């Protein structure tokens, strides 16, 4: 345990101490004894001491740390380049492979969306895991863990705001990329039906919520940030291997990723219901276990 005081460590983390002030309702402090004549100064100090709720704190943390910006930029790059790669696939193959090759047929809108998903989901899921771990691995910094644990009443209050805010942020980042692909594909290749596109995005959003819940569980099992990142990343990247068993493929959560392009091709919504049910159940189990384990863990 560091010899520094917890508030001092929290101050270095930007908005971290506000959580404790919010939870503890701490409105006192050395500045409260200031002179009565300095109304402007006193009001300024009071404004700075105004408690910030845990939910608002998590929103500010996600925005001010640029974690959301980094994830959004990643998905946006793939969202803009996916339709170009589908449109100019023949030229790309000709430039990268000197051997004669059969010319590909004109691209279809579903192929453009599939290119975005194939290119972005690997790095995208890894970015989601890293950003989520940086938010949910509370015990990775012992001084801050002590600071929060002694001021926030329950483990649920520590986990659920962080999980909800970072999940919404990561889904928004993905939707930005999907929206850019939708627009670019419509302009360059052809019309993309709105219903399947929106529904496919919702299925992928459920998968991302599961990924963040898995990170929350890892954060309750391990203290080190490397372990919190490694376990979910390995599981999420390894899940598609279960699709090698045809009977298991409809049930694994990663099947939901294929809904983004599959619904534009020949898949039906009902094809993804088994994976959706398993994903929802696994998300609930991971969150419940994360809250329970974190509540029993000693500082």
UniProtKB/TrEMBL annotation:
Q: Where is this region: Disordered?
A: 1-44
| Sections of the chain in a coiled coil | none
Q: Where are the transmembrane segments?
A: 66-89, 121-140, 152-177, 197-222, 234-252, 272-294
Superkingdom: Bacteria
The protein here is known as ABC-2 type transport system permease protein
Q: What is the lineage of its organism?
A: Bacteria, Bacillati, Actinomycetota, Actinomycetes, Streptosporangiales
Species this protein is from: Streptomonospora salina
Keywords carried by this UniProt record: Membrane, Transmembrane, Transmembrane helix
What spans are recorded as compositionally biased (Low complexity)? Answer: 1-25
């Amino acid at each position: 345990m560091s010899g520094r005081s917890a508030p001092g460590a929290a101050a270095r983390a930007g908005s971290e101490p506000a959580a404790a002030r919010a939870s503890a309702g701490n409105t006192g402090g050395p500045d409260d004894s200031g002179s009565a004549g300095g109304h402007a100064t006193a009001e300024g100090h009071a404004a700075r001491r105004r408690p910030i709720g845990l939910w608002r704190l998590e929103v500010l943390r996600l925005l001010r740390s640029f974690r959301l910006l980094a994830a959004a930029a990643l998905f946006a790059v793939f969202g803009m380049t996916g339709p170009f790669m589908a449109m100019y696939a023949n030229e790309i193959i000709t430039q990268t492979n000197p051997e004669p090759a059969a010319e590909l047929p004109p691209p279809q809108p579903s192929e453009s969306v599939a290119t975005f998903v194939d290119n972005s989901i690997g790095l995208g899921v890894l970015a989601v895991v890293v950003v989520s771990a940086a938010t949910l691995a509370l015990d990775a910094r012992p001084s801050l863990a002590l600071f929060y644990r002694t001021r926030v009443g329950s483990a649920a209050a520590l986990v659920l705001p962080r999980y909800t805010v970072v999940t919404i942020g990561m889904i928004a980042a993905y939707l930005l990329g999907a929206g850019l692909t939708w627009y670019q594909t419509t302009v360059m290749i052809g019309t993309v039906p709105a219903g399947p596109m929106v529904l496919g995005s919702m299925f992928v959003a459920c998968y991302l919520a599961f990924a963040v819940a898995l990170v929350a569980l890892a954060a309750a099992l391990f203290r080190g940030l490397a372990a919190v990142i490694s376990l979910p990343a390995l599981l999420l990247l390894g899940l598609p291997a279960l699709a090698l068993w045809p009977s298991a493929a409809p049930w694994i959560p990663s099947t939901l990723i294929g809904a983004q392009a599959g619904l534009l091709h020949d898949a039906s919504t009902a094809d993804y219901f088994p994976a959706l049910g398993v994903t929802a159940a696994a998300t609930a189990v991971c969150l419940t276990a994360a809250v329970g384990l974190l509540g029993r863990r000693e500082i």
